[in-house]
Each structure stands twice: as structure tokens, then as C-alpha cells.
Amino acid sequence: MADQSTDERLGRDPERPVYVISVAAELVRVHPRTLRIYELEGLICPARTRSNIRLYSEKDIRRVLWIRHLTHNLGVNLAGVRVLFALEERLGMRILETLYENRANDTNGKAAKDNVTSKAEVLDTDELGGELDNEIDTVNPDPAAASR
After folding, report:
1. Which residues contact 14 (CB under 8 A, 6 or more apart)?
2. Where are the domains of the chain?
3. Which candidate, 125, 113, 11, places its Cα nearest to that of 58?
4. Which residues pair with 20 in a beta bridge?
5. Rounded CA gap, 63 and 69, in Å?
6. What is the DSSP-derived secondary structure letter of residue 120?
7. 58 three-state secondary structure
8. pLDDT digits (tens, 9 = 90+) for 14-40
9. pLDDT tens, 71-106?
10. Looking at the domain that runs over 1-75, which CATH code has it been given?
């Protein structure tokens, strides 16, 4: 990817919707139907033209790449992806990027504790677990109803 100064020079805005669904699907190597499913699941929200054509931004493309990484490489299902994105939004931190960087930096298989967060604070695991429980309850408020 180009650095930010190149983006500014060329007038690129990562939130500007420019890619139609076929181009966006090709960029992230998925079928266009997959992008429609991600939209139905509430994981992405592409802009629409007056004639109702979906337009995807660079930000949308990056989000789809994260979804693919989580589902294909880490085995997370779409409901789990939704919970992770909601948790990130609620905490105001890029925890997925941090976890990915930690995993990439961890060449010996040990936990990389030095780079736990991109900010100067460390999350309390009880707080994080509580937040995750709340998000899971939001996604599936009645587990008995789901088994019926």
C-alpha cells in the first residue's frame, strides 16, 4: 500500500466509495455474493448510488480483508467477527490489529507481552471478558431460543 503522504498527494480518501462490487470482490478475492452476505450480516456497509449500486471504499476493502483473515485463518465465524468488531468499536481500540501484530512478532511461539496494546494502557482481562460477554448476550440474548 502507498504511504499516507502519497495518498494525500494523489487526493485519495480511504473513506471515499469508488469500487463497484465486481472490482471490490476481485481486489479481496471473493465472490460478489460473499460481499452481499457480509452486508446482510451487518459486517460492512457500502455506500449506494442513486441507482442503488454498491460502492466500496478502501476502508471497506480493508474490513473485508480482516473478515477473511479472521474466518479463514483463525476459524472465527461471522457472528464472532461481528462481536469482535463491536468490541473494538466499544473499546475505541484496534485490538485486532494489535493481536495480529503480536502474532506476527511472536516467532518463537511465546506470548508477545511487550506489544499488548497500541496505546499506553493494558486491558484488564476481567473487563475485556465482561465486555465480550455483553456483546455475546447482545448477539444471542436467549440461548434456549437459539437451540429450538
Report:
1. 7, 57, 58, 59, 62
2. 1-75, 77-139
3. 11
4. 55
5. 10
6. S
7. helix
8. 899 999 999 999 999 999 999 999 999
9. 999 999 999 999 999 998 888 877 777 777 777 776
10. 1.10.1660.10
